[in-house]
Amino acid sequence: MSADPHDFFASAPVRTLDTPPPELTAPTLARPRPRNRGVFGLVLALLLTAIVAFAVHGHLDGSHRGGATGLVADGEGGTTRALGGSPPVTVTSHPSRLMPAVLAPAGAGGYVFDAPARFDPCQPIRYVVSGAEPFAGANALLTQVLSEVSARSGLKFVNAGPTTERAQPDRPSYQPDRYGQTWAPVLVAWTDQAAEPRLAGNIIGLGGPAVASVRGKEHLVSGLLYFDAPELSLIAQWPTGFAQMRTVMLHEIGHLVGLGHVVDPTAVMYPSDGGQGDYNLGDLRGLAYAGSGPCSKYH
Question: What DSSP state is assigned to residue 266?
Fold first, then answer.
């Protein structure tokens, strides 16, 4: 996804961190020097080099696939422009917040808010789920994580049930034949890279909102959460699998409500899942900001 260039909240307190991100580098392999120029010495040196290289490669591959670090939650999170037209504009039936505003932790910074608007806290964020559960308890874990984000942002998520809609790269935000004359709910899809090519490689999740202009003002109106089901079914077998999948879900839902990547490796909004486990103070400040938008008169 690419971030929308129009920044309605240009004056909003966008926070960044100064610490540069760490880089994962493979160790340099020094080729052992043969004791002599004989054939036996040269063969022995090459054999030792091959053994060391194999061992290092196996370690690095394990760190990406079976260890506690190296999972990439997603690529670049961001906001997309709503596609497929727009529903009729009506006066809202919720003139006040559905949940109390959340007080941000003391301090400042530690987050990036890169969406051009925020969700309306006076309207529920409806979502639907498509695809078969990639592991037993996946839907229950999703519900739990959404409840956590709701409590920390003051935004109310409402499950609108299952859907036959499938993941696609350019998902329409207005689908009246399927969802009626209102914005389509957020689509949570247990899918794969055949349906969504951006899930290729070790990217296991994508998340982001859809923005539209309503009566001259930008609003977040829908969005998507796509998860690579085959990858999740494998991760579920790891000793730390459920904890890491929870972090991935927290990360993608953070994108959904407008948060961007940060360079702090202890933050859930760091680009890769290192088993952070829970939002840190910077993440929580970002969620509080995401949920403190104004209520709109229109829906």
Answer: T
Q: What is the pLDDT of residue 21?
A: 33
Each residue of 205-250: pLDDT tens digit?
999 999 998 777 888 999 999 999 999 999 999 998 999 999 999 9
Number of other CB atoms surrounding residue 283 within 10 Å: 26
Backbone angles phi, psi at 12, to 5 degrees: -70, 155
CA gap 260, 3 in Å, rounded: 10
Structural domain range at position 166: 71-290
Judged against a pLDDT cut of 80, whether residue 99 lies above it is answered with yes
Alpha-carbon torsion (144, 100, 128, 70), positive or negative: negative
Q: What is the CA radius of gyration of the chain?
A: 22
Identify the burial level of 121 via C-beta atoms within 10 angstroms of its C-beta, where 0-12 means exposed, 13-18 middle and 19 or more buried. buried
Pick the more confident residue, 224 or 96: 224
**Per the domain annotation, does 295 fall within a domain?**
no
Residue 278 lies in a domain: yes
DSSP states along 148-180: HHHHHH-PPEEEEEE------SS--S--HHHH-
| Mean residue pLDDT across the chain | 77
Q: Which residues are CB-neighbours of 214 under 8 A, at least 6 positions away?
A: 86, 89, 221, 296, 298
Q: How many CA atoms lie within 13 A of 197 on its CB side?
A: 2
